[in-house]
């Protein structure tokens, strides 16, 4: 989206519309609860989502769990699901998680402390208020200095 700021603006407007539609919010929450229920059942059978080895399926779930935690919703969606809670603790110990996502939480949390919730939800997401160049620079530095495991 950095190369297409107009696309980013359109995307954020759609998000704003979704946040203002109670039916869309309810449907999204129902889908989240259903997904997490399926994940919990699967983790009763396997160590990771598709077996005993970490896979791309796990990579796809991690940002969702990270966002849930970042928003302070882990009690509602992670902690009360014992297998997901155990899985999440395991995933957060991975060097790649620590290098790429875990380290960014500090930056996100600082930003969240200085942004009113309405700004976060209605004007462009978690990075609103930070200069675009600052965000890109910070992400680029952290990604280029990390080793993927």
Describe the structure.
InterPro entries: Glutathione-S-Trfase_C-like, Glutathione-S-Trfase_C_sf, TCHQD. It comes from Coptis chinensis. There is one protein chain. This protein has 149 residues and is an all-alpha fold. The chain has two domains: 93 residues, Glutathione S-transferase Yfyf (Class Pi), Chain A, domain 2, CATH 1.20.1050; 56 residues, no CATH class. The protein is built from eight helices and no strands.
The average pLDDT score comes to 74
N-to-C SSE string, H for helix and E for strand: HHHHHHHH
* Spatial separation of the terminal alpha carbons: 26 Å
Enumerate the spans where pLDDT stays under 50 for 5 or more consecutive residues.
113-132
Task: Determine and state the CATH class of the largest domain.
Answer: Mainly Alpha
Task: State the shape.
Answer: globular
Per CATH, the architecture of the largest domain is Up-down Bundle
Proportion of helical residues: over 70%
Category from helices, strands and their pairing:
mainly alpha
Largest sheet: none
- Give a count of the beta strands, DSSP E runs of length 2 or more: 0
Number of helices: 8
Counting structural domains, the number is 2
Pfam family, one: GST_C_2
Domain GST C-terminal: 1-120
InterPro entries: Glutathione-S-Trfase_C-like, Glutathione-S-Trfase_C_sf, TCHQD
GO molecular function: glutathione transferase activity
